[in-house]
Amino acid sequence: DTEVTQTPKHLVMGMTNKKSLKCEQHMGHRAMYWYKQKAKKPPELMFVYSYEKLSINESVPSRFSPECPNSSLLNLHLHALQPEDSALYLCASSRLLQGAEETQYFGPGTRLLVL
Amino acid sequence: TQLLEQSPQFLSIQEGENLTVYCNSSSVFSSLQWYRQEPGEGPVLLVTVVTGGEVKKLKRLTFQFGDARKDSSLHITAAQPGDTGLYLCAGGQGAQKLVFGQGTRLTINP
Hints:
Oligomer: heterodimer
Number of helices of chain A: 0
Radius of gyration of chain B: 13 Å
Largest sheet of chain B: 6 strands, mixed
Helix content of chain B: under 10%
Shape of chain A: globular
Structural class of chain A: mainly beta
Number of helices of chain B: 0
Helix content of chain A: under 10%
Distance between the termini of chain A: 37 Å
Number of strands of chain B: 11
Distance between the termini of chain B: 40 Å
Shape of chain B: globular
Strand content of chain A: over 45%
Strand content of chain B: over 45%
Order of helices and strands of chain A: EEEEEEEEEEE
Number of strands of chain A: 11
Order of helices and strands of chain B: EEEEEEEEEEE
């Protein structure tokens, strides 16, 4: 099973709302990722968790707050977003080993619209 | 900054034709992944190549990793409308970071 699941699939929120995106995998992967993808562009890395600890933060604004409650779950808490934050948010996971294990498996994404 | 130059950016061909997509870099990658993405969906892994000169086949798709592990190609034989999508290459250099190409938007016309 190489499935990463994400909820919700679609989300519309106002600039004053607080919402959360959720991601889950049961492949035993110990690295989990959040990406942001704008239309017609490749995914851009936001955060990486390795063994449930934040290992990479690509200078993401604090209105995005990641959380990794356990090795299978990854959340992204959203607060006071701007319209330009509207995008497809992708979660991914990988085994956290060298070589072929760098392969990242992506979820279906959450399409976020900020009004 | 490591870059993966992917070409062509857009390709529209007729059903039954063959095509090749390229990813090139001046950097060495320890692995290279190819993904296909449909609009509004996440990228779906097609293949990972890790050994210089490696060739992998997935039905009508043939993937090759360059001998120096700086470039890769995806060849599709007898393209079908179901092959339509965005194809992304992504190079791994360790530390959980992937370098993505800009993508090739492929359209197969019936």
